[in-house]
Amino acid sequence: MIIKKGIRRQIVLHYFLVVFIALLLIEVIFLIALRTYYYDTVYNHITNHFRTANPFYEPFRLSASDNANQLSEMIRHFELYNTELQILNPAGQVLSTSTGFEIEQTIKTSDVTQALAGNSSRWIGKQQGTGQIVMAVSQTISNGFENTYILRYVTSLEFINEKLMKMTLFAVSIGAAVLAIVLAFSIGLANSIVKPLNNITTVSAQMAKGKFNVRIKGDYKYELGELSSTLNYMAQEIVRSNQVKDDFISSISHELRTPLTSIKGWSETLDSGGYDPEETKIGMQIISKETDRLIGLVEELLDFSKLQQNEMKLVKGIVNVRELLQEIMLNLWTKAEKKGVKIILESDEKPIIYGDVNRLKQVFLNIVDNAVKFSHENGVINLSFELEGKFVAITVQDHGIGISDEHLRRVKDRFFQVNPLNGGTGLGLAITQQLVELHGGTMEMHSELGHGTAVIVKLPLPEGKIPMAGGLESGEDDGVGPIA
């Protein structure tokens, strides 16, 4: 089975290799331990036999004097079933064997040399003549007089090696079966990852071509489920953003066309001549008003563009919050008066903050202007502020029409308008939010439909000695302690 290159192949190969190496190590260690166990058992059996037989040979060792009889007694006392016993002299020559066969060669294997040194040792190798794999264990023994002999036990390992081979084949078969199961499992695991990825990739490619109505289908789990949900959400947001963008283009086109139509109409009318000065004055006022309106729209779009590109620069200085709000009230007094709305500044304190006065004026002009716009006739707008730790919280509370929960979640989104018929670009609150954040502050909105809206802007107080009023620079001593 050939698996083409890709994640599937990588998963299968890595998983298979890890299990294969682990199995190989386990089987090698197991087989080595098994071989060591069997060989040690044979060696211990021989050495234990020698230790057990040696005390029974003691009387013969002390009384025997004939070498031939001595060798016969050694064979009789020390021979072991299914094992050849060889009696060697210190030179390695075979003097007698339990099998009766004469061996003419001199034996110099490691077990013999170790036995002469006083240690019990074993040697494993091929026996000359037969070619069998054997184990030889040698021990020295004295006849009680001047002669020293080497007792050498030789036993065949063919039967043990045959058993070890069968166990090896059995272990290899088990390992092969495990690897086959692992291979099948790893392919299934790879498919469970790759197939959803292929589906996600296919849908993503369609999204990349602009088909944002397609969705990733399938109940995927864990990271794949999160990925598919994220892509579906992204496509949904792009569709929504495109709809908002289309609505914005339609709205801004209308917003631009209305003043341009007025300007063009009055320009053509005034250019034709024949009007009295009063009508000419009215026409010029309309042209000036609509031009200001166009300038306001363009500046709002430019501000939004700068904020999106992080190019908005703040010119910070000392700002008196009370004086700032009083100026806002004066700027909107005429508009509020026409609707019978009262704007009341409730707080008497005069906290000082460090910020861009023009941008902060833009922030609160937009917030209070919206409060006036959505207040009932003869309504009241309350402006207040209070110190909250290291912040000053400025609240604009109206008692107008309010905002529904559905719209409240989106009211600060760019291009969004609660009521498109009211005009505007839908960028006012989005720009306001970003300007507040540029000052290190936050803006919260709380509203209940039919009961008004409260906008809370929190701006950080400066660190160090800052006066509560006036235009002193930070650090000048006026007897007022630090604001915290």
Give a summary of the structure in a few sentences.
Keywords: ATP-binding, Cell membrane, Kinase, Membrane, Nucleotide-binding, Phosphoprotein, Transferase, Transmembrane, Transmembrane helix, Two-component regulatory system. By secondary structure, this protein is α+β, with helices and mostly antiparallel strands. The protein contains eleven helices and twelve strands.
Tell me what you see in this structure.
The structure is a single chain. The protein is α+β, with helices and mostly antiparallel strands. The protein folds into three domains: 157 residues, Beta-Lactamase, CATH 3.30.450.20; 88 residues, Helix Hairpins (Orthogonal Bundle); 144 residues, Heat Shock Protein 90 (2-Layer Sandwich), CATH 3.30.565.10. Helices cover 54% and strands 16% of the residues. It has eleven helices and twelve strands. The strands form three sheets. The chain has a five-stranded antiparallel sheet with strand order 2-1-5-4-3, sandwiched between helices. A hairpin with a 2-residue loop joins β9 and β10. The chain is rod-shaped. InterPro entries: HAMP_dom, HATPase_C_sf, HATPase_dom, His_kinase_dom, HisK_dim/P_dom, HisK_dim/P_sf, HssS/ArlS-like, Sig_transdc_His_kin-like_C. It is an enzyme of class 2 (transferase). It is a multi-pass membrane protein. GO terms for molecular function: ATP binding; phosphorelay sensor kinase activity. Keywords: ATP-binding, Cell membrane, Kinase, Membrane, Nucleotide-binding, Phosphoprotein, Transferase, Transmembrane, Transmembrane helix, Two-component regulatory system.
